[in-house]
Amino acid sequence: MKTYLPKIDLQRRKWRIVDASGKTLGRLAVVLANMLRGRDKPVFTHHLDAGDFVVVINAEKVRLTGRKETEKEFMSYSGWRGGEKYKTVAQVRATHPDRLILHAVKGMLPKNRLSDQLLTKLRVFKGEIHPYAAQKPEPVTLNLN
Fold it and tell me: Mean pLDDT across the stretch 49-75?
């Protein structure tokens, strides 16, 4: 008996839009990672990219629980001696709020070459305006507690 491998039709990928306002960051990231991988489809296979394109709006209104807004830090390293820089979540939210969601979703994806391919299908925007209206993204209603 042969193993069945689904044919991933690139033309049938949907565009979905998610409003992040008031949603908890971690719970939102899990749902976004599953949509990017295609885990909600019957043709899901671990090593194939069967997911949809996801547009996230209102990234600056995402919610964090506890004291993460002031205590959680993001580190960047320039490669030079003494080149470590730390920013709190509040500083990142003020300058690049899309990076909060990108960083959280990247942590939820598998650590291999497929995750880089999956992340290219995620588009995160500050505010409600996005340039993908021509793709007619269907809105996703999330019931996250």
Answer: 95
